[in-house]
UniProtKB/TrEMBL annotation:
Record has Transmembrane helix as a keyword: no
Domain Iron-binding zinc finger CDGSH type: 23-65
Domain of life of the source: Bacteria
InterPro entries in the cross-refs: FeS-contain_CDGSH-typ, MitoNEET_CISD
Protein name: Iron-binding zinc finger CDGSH type domain-containing protein
Keyword set includes Acyltransferase: no
Keywords attached to this entry: 2Fe-2S, Iron, Iron-sulfur, Metal-binding
Length: 65
């Protein structure tokens, strides 16, 4: 069976003080069971939970107040 694009592993880039960068499109299941979807080619997922758009990163991690 030949490899299809869906068989290709999804690349996730980890940054020390930033979001997880995920090659999209992505579907994210939240703690409460709801699902959010992004069809962008690269998605930034918040890891600090400061984002007002969680789970999407809005660069709130840069504010150190």
């Amino acid at each position: 069976m030949p490899n299809s694009p869906s068989d290709k592993p999804r690349r996730i880039t980890v940054q020390r003080r930033g979001p997880l960068l995920v090659e999209g499109p992505v579907e994210v299941e939240l703690e409460d069971g709801t699902t959010v979807v992004s069809d962008r080619f690269l998605v930034a997922l918040c890891t600090c939970r400061r984002s007002r758009r969680y789970p999407w990163c809005d660069t709130s991690h840069r504010d150190r107040g």
